[in-house]
Amino acid sequence: MKRSYILLAGLAIILAGCEPQPNTGKGFSLPEGDASIGKITFVELGCNTCHSIADIEQLPRDDNSLPHVKLGGSVSTIKSYGELVTSIINPSHKVLKRLNQGTVMAEDGSSTMRVYNDIMTVSQLVNLVTFLEDNYEVIPYKRTVYYRVDSIH
Question: Which residues constitute the domain of residue 59?
């Protein structure tokens, strides 16, 4: 009898885990971006002050406490389009304690990266993520197809 309760409890836990949670990204997809515009956005927003990426000169840093974070290439931490978006809009989501130079974590445990949510447009975000994605080996994902409506009749 006790074993039946344990099996029943285990099944309930498994089934509860199958329900989509309200705070997941399930169903979220951004439209296709333009990597060449994303590269321009990367420089315009000064991302190359703390981040280095192939073919873009890193800006000199007056403050040696600023981190140096290499982007692109084959890495195990950035695996998907969603993680790239999250790293930009919520830089405190995953924070490394130390990198090559400078700290990326404030005393309160948050990221030292500036939050761009009130500065960057959605178009800039889409293009920037597309640019970054092209510099990583990422897990493929299925984009949502968006249709353009020229006029409503």
Answer: 30-134
